[in-house]
Amino acid sequence: MLYHASGEVVEFPEIRKSRYTKDFSWGFYCTNNFKQAKRWAKRNRECPTVNYYTYMENKQLKILKFENMTDEWLDFIAACRNGLVHDYDIVEGPMADDTVWNYVNDFLDGEITRNIFWELAKFKYPTHQISFHTLKALDCLKFERSEIINE
Fold first, then answer.
1. Cβ-proximal residues to 140 (8 Å cutoff; 6+ apart), any chain
2. H or E segment and range at residue 51
3. The pTM is what?
4. How far apart (Å, rounded) are the C-alpha atoms in residues 139 and 135?
5. Mean pLDDT of 36-44
6. Exposure winner among 58, 70, 89, 125, fewest CB in 10 A?
7. In this predicted model, what pLDDT tens digit does every residue of 44-55 receive, in sequence order?
């Protein structure tokens, strides 16, 4: 089961290009962590909603998975946030929390070195994200239901 945080029911996921690129570039983002989805749904939304999807992996798609925060993960995020448009259908890996996000930005801005980034980030425990970047990738998701978060 995957979850998508929103301010509305998202029965038909879309890939939207926005002003800011995210960790893995533009895409439709989900997580396997319900608590994380719930927290994100409640951020500045009038109707915080968590959407539930069944995910059926398609091995024929081009999928990039990061098991942990690594130099490759950091370099990929840095490239995506600087405008890289990659050719992966799906990217999965750790999600930088707000603190690690700040460290990544400091690294991108040249305010800290890679070694300092890892020193600061080593006691942080990232959560999970999976992003869908093509229509073929979105076909791997089957909408199950949504839940309005009232707490």
1. 55, 56, 57, 58, 61, 90, 132
2. strand 49-55
3. 0.89
4. 6
5. 89
6. 125
7. 788 999 999 999
